[in-house]
Amino acid sequence: MLIGKFNQKPFQKKFEEFYKIKPAKSADRIYDALYVLVDAISNSKDDVNKYIEKNKFTTVNGTIVFNENHEVENLPVSLQFIKDGKIVDYTNE
User: Fold this and answer.
1) Domain of 70: which CATH number?
2) What are phi and psi of 74, to 5 degrees?
3) CB of 72 within 8 A of CB of 66?
4) Model pTM greater than 0.70?
5) Which H or E element spans position 48?
6) Which of 24, 40, 43, 65 is 20–30 Å from 85 (CA)?
């Protein structure tokens, strides 16, 4: 289970004003992902992956930075799971 630590209110307000419906809970993150992809395709000269690795992307949820493994370095989420009926934070240990 991914738990977001996002400030979704500004995105939700603009979304509701434009579409006249409430956005899905993950709409802001989907928007961010598409924004990064479109930016990379539009601006990379030859290698989209290298462009993504070397740039920072200012999105509705803040600045996103990728590493050489194409993982987001600073995404404000935590990974949790249920163990013995309790929610537990995932640790890479």
Assistant:
1) 3.40.50.2300
2) -130, 30
3) yes
4) no
5) helix 48-54
6) 24
Pick from 45, 43, 6, 44: nearest CA to 25: 6
Q: What is the C-alpha to C-alpha distance for residues 13 and 35, in angstroms, rounded to an integer?
A: 18
- Under DSSP, the state recorded for 93 is -
Which of 62, 82, 52 is CA-nearest to residue 5? Answer: 62
Q: Which helix (H) or strand (E) holds 80?
A: strand 77-83
Q: Do residues 80 and 59 make contact, with C-beta atoms less than 8 angstroms apart? A: no
The span from the CA of 55 to the CA of 26, in Å, is 24
Are 7 and 14 in contact by the 8 Å Cβ rule? The answer is no
- Residue 5, token pair as written in the block: 């630590």
Split into its structural domains, the chain has a count of 1
Nearest 5°: CA angle at 35, between 33 and 38? Answer: 110
Q: Which domain holds residue 54?
A: 2-89
